[in-house]
Design goal:
The protein is mainly α. The protein has two domains: 46 residues, no CATH class; 236 residues, no CATH class. 66% of the residues lie in helices and 0% in strands. Helix 4 runs parallel beside helix 10, helix 7 packs across helix 9 and helix 7 packs across helix 10. The longest helix is centred in the N-terminal third of the chain and has 28 residues. The radius of gyration is 21 Å and the shape is globular.
C-alpha cells in the first residue's frame, strides 16, 4: 500500500467497508474506483493474508460458476444446439453431480493452496498495493503468462496420458467424453495440483525473472484462464468464438476432440505445440484413440 493508505489505516480500524471506501476515495482522489475498492478491502479486513485468501477464493468461485451459467442456459434453448460440437446435452443430474465433486475439490484441494498463496507470493516480491500497473504492462505480462502456462500444460497433460499416470490420475477428468463447462475442473486433486502449478507458476516465474508483478495482474490472468478452461470444455463452437479470429487459439473444438478421441490436442490455449510435435487429433488418430480407449477399459 502507499504510505497515505497506511497512515489512513492506522486511524480508521472500526468503520464498515462501504464507509472505508467512501473515506479512501475522498482521502486520495488519484485512485480510480477499482483501486479505491481494492485499498478499502485490505484496510477493512486489517489482515493481508486473510484479505487476499478470501478475495482469491471468492473470485475463483464467482468466475468459474458464473462462466458456466451461460452454457447451461444454452443447453436449454434449442436454437443454440446447432453450435454444439457433439450432440449430447448434459442432464441436470450430470451437471449437479459434476458441480458437487468440483465444489468438494475447491474446498478441500484448492482452498488451502489459495490461502497460503499470499505469504509465498509477497515473499517472492509480488506487489499488491495501489495504484495498479498500466494496462499496457498488464497486457504484456498476460501474454507471457498464457505462453508459459500453455507450454507447461502441454507437456504435463501429455505425460498424464501415459500408463499409470492416466489410470490413477487423469482418467477421472475423461469421465465425460462429451464435456460441458462445469467439467473443466472435474479432476483428481493430484491433477489439479499438477496442472494448477502452471496457472500459478507462470506468473511467479515471470515475477522471478523480471521482479515486477502485481496481484491485480494475477487476478486478471486467473480470470482469463478460467474463461479459457470453461470455454474449452463448453462443447459449443460459436461463430463468435475466439478461435475464428485467432487461428492459433485452441478453442472448444480443439479440446472437445481431445475428450472424444482420447489422444492428441494436449495444449490448453494455443495450437502450436500440437502442430509442431505432430499431436493434433487427425482423422487417423480418431480411430487410434477409440482403439486405445477400448484396450484401457478391458485392462481395468
Amino acid at each position: 500500500m502507499t504510505s497515505i493508505v497506511i497512515n489512513f489505516q492506522m486511524q480508521n480500524q472500526t468503520v464498515g467497508y462501504l464507509e472505508t471506501v467512501k473515506q479512501v476515495s475522498s482521502h486520495d482522489q488519484t485512485l480510480n474506483w477499482l483501486e479505491a475498492l481494492w485499498a478499502s478491502w485490505y484496510l477493512y479486513m486489517n489482515n493481508d493474508i486473510y484479505a487476499t485468501g478470501m478475495m482469491s477464493f471468492l473470485l475463483h468461485e464467482v468466475i468459474y460458476f458464473g462462466r458456466c451459467l451461460p452454457f447451461m442456459i444454452c443447453d436449454k434453448i434449442p436454437y443454440f444446439h446447432r453450435y454444439k460440437i457433439q450432440t449430447k446435452i448434459p442432464t441436470l443430474k450430470e451437471q449437479w453431480d459434476c458441480a458437487l465433486v468440483v465444489l468438494i475439490s475447491h474446498f478441500t484441494a484448492e482452498l488451502p493452496q489459495i490461502w497460503f498463496f499470499h505469504p509465498i507470493a509477497t515473499w517472492a516480491g509480488l506487489a499488491y498495493g495501489v495504484p495498479f500497473p498500466t494496462w499496457s504492462k498488464i497486457s504484456l505480462q498476460l501474454i507471457a503468462c498464457f505462453i508459459l502456462e500453455d507450454t507447461w500444460h502441454y507437456w504435463t497433460h501429455r505425460a498424464l496420458h501415459y500408463g499409470l499416470l492416466y489410470r490413477h490420475i487423469h482418467k477421472m477428468h475423461h469421465y465425460y467424453s462429451a464435456p460441458f463447462g462445469l467439467a473443466a475442473e472435474y479432476a483428481s486433486p493430484i491433477e489439479t495440483a499438477i496442472l494448477g502449478a502452471g496457472v500459478i507458476g507462470a506468473p511467479l516465474l515471470l515475477l522471478s525473472l523480471t521482479g515486477d508483478l502485481h496481484l491485480f495482474t494475477m487476478y486478471v490472468w486467473i480470470t482469463l484462464r478460467l474463461f479459457q478452461a470453461v470455454d474449452a470444455h463448453s462443447g459449443y463452437d460459436f461463430p463468435w468464438s475466439l478461435r475464428h479470429f485467432l487461428p492459433f487459439w485452441s478453442g472448444a473444438d480443439h479440446h472437445d476432440l481431445h475428450h472424444k478421441v482420447f489422444i492428441g490436442n494436449y495444449a490448453s490455449s494455443f495450437r502450436w505445440w500440437d502442430y509442431l510435435l505432430g499431436t493434433e487429433a487427425s482423422q487417423r488418430k480418431k480411430q487410434n484413440g477409440r482403439s486405445m480407449k477400448i484396450v484401457i477399459h478391458k485392462e481395468e
